[in-house]
Amino acid sequence: MISRAERTPFSEWWWTIDKPLLFSLAALMVGGIVLSLAASPAVADRLNLDLFHFVNRQVMFLIPTVLLTLGISFLDPRKVRRLALGAYLIFFPLMIFALFFGPEIKGAHRWIQIGPLGVQPSEFVKPSFIVLAAWLFAEGTRRDDVPGHLLAMTLFGATIGVLILQPDFGQTMLIGVVWGCLFFLAGLRWIWMIGLGGLGVGGVFLAYEALPHVRARFGKFLNPETGENFQTERAFESFVSGGWFGKGPGEGTVKRILPDAHTDFIFAVTGEEFGIIFCLILLSLFAFVVLRGLWHALNEDEPFVRLAIAGLTMLFGLQSAINMAVNVQLMPAKGMTLPFISYGGSSLISLALGMGMLLALTRRRPRARLVEGFPGAVPAGQFS
């Protein structure tokens, strides 16, 4: 039992961390291993790999994920800002490097090869970009001498510019939506919000006209009778096949024919083998993380912390929603992973970065109020 009277870094962390949020994220990590055991052996066998190749690698990446998440959660808001800045300064140049020197995979240059490991720098740019944008919006709102809004727009333009060139339409859309929400929360007027929405729609139309793979995905989604929606159609059928309670672990068939059963369509494998009820439980777990984060943002007084919590929460929630929507044919295929559930080293480590910062920012921080006439009183916010 950890005493509240102890004044050690661990005891202070334990009594200030949001334990329901922490345990929910831990449950998702464990669920990712269990569902990887169900979905990935069939994919590994089809690729002539060891049956537990992807499971072993998922566990290997999960160990640093846990350590990084917990380590970052010890930071205070100032150090979170510094971490975000450092991560952005490292991985944004790597995004540019991947654009020119990275291998071409499915027509895009998003990866760099570091020895035997492939790294997708944009995964790490996402959470760091959101925190930096929140910081700039907060400073622009708080101080007249800082052009925070203009700097946030410049940062956004540079980031999505590289993503568009890779091209990575899904990540561009995800970052654009979250950034727009942060701009609105920072006090953007409705007329500007409508203008940004119009630019977003124009960007989607431009991507449709200029990028063949985007046009193909929209075409397949809008005209399912063409028979070219193989993965999404099989994924949707898996939910019907599994019913409410599923066929049982290892009894699914969709994973034997879906190329991305262990990544983009692991939610479909979950539906077939564990049933719709289990999928709803998993959905509730994601929803709890999102609602818990937004509750913290609603009750936070410090502008930067409020915006950063809201941004990181929306980033996590939108990515989860997009993946699940694709699996049930509510959206065109995006190639976006289900957080902590889908296989992927870059995805896991980047989630550790984002969720570690979220846990750090949602910790209870002491605030001493200035009491009139009390000598030595500490102004409010000094400990924030």
TrEMBL record:
Positions the record marks as coiled coil are none
The entry's localization annotation reads:
Cell membrane
Matches recorded under InterPro entries = FtsW (IPR013437), FtsW/RodA (IPR001182)
**Which residue ranges does UniProt annotate as crossing the membrane?**
21-39, 59-76, 83-101, 146-165, 172-192, 274-295, 307-328, 340-361
**Which pathway, per its entry?**
Cell wall biogenesis; peptidoglycan biosynthesis
Q: Which UniProt keywords apply?
A: Cell cycle, Cell division, Cell membrane, Cell shape, Cell wall biogenesis/degradation, Glycosyltransferase, Membrane, Peptidoglycan synthesis, Transferase, Transmembrane, Transmembrane helix
For the keyword Flavoprotein, the answer is no
Reaction it catalyzes: [GlcNAc-(1->4)-Mur2Ac(oyl-L-Ala-gamma-D-Glu-L-Lys-D-Ala-D-Ala)](n)-di-trans,octa-cis-undecaprenyl diphosphate + beta-D-GlcNAc-(1->4)-Mur2Ac(oyl-L-Ala-gamma-D-Glu-L-Lys-D-Ala-D-Ala)-di-trans,octa-cis-undecaprenyl diphosphate = [GlcNAc-(1->4)-Mur2Ac(oyl-L-Ala-gamma-D-Glu-L-Lys-D-Ala-D-Ala)](n+1)-di-trans,octa-cis-undecaprenyl diphosphate + di-trans,octa-cis-undecaprenyl diphosphate + H(+)
Q: Per UniProt, what is the membrane topology?
A: Multi-pass membrane protein
Q: Which E.C. number(s) belong to this protein? A: 2.4.99.28
Q: Does the keyword Cell wall biogenesis/degradation apply?
A: yes
Tell me its family: Belongs to the SEDS family. FtsW subfamily.
Q: What is this protein called?
A: Probable peptidoglycan glycosyltransferase FtsW
The organism encoding this protein is Flaviflagellibacter deserti
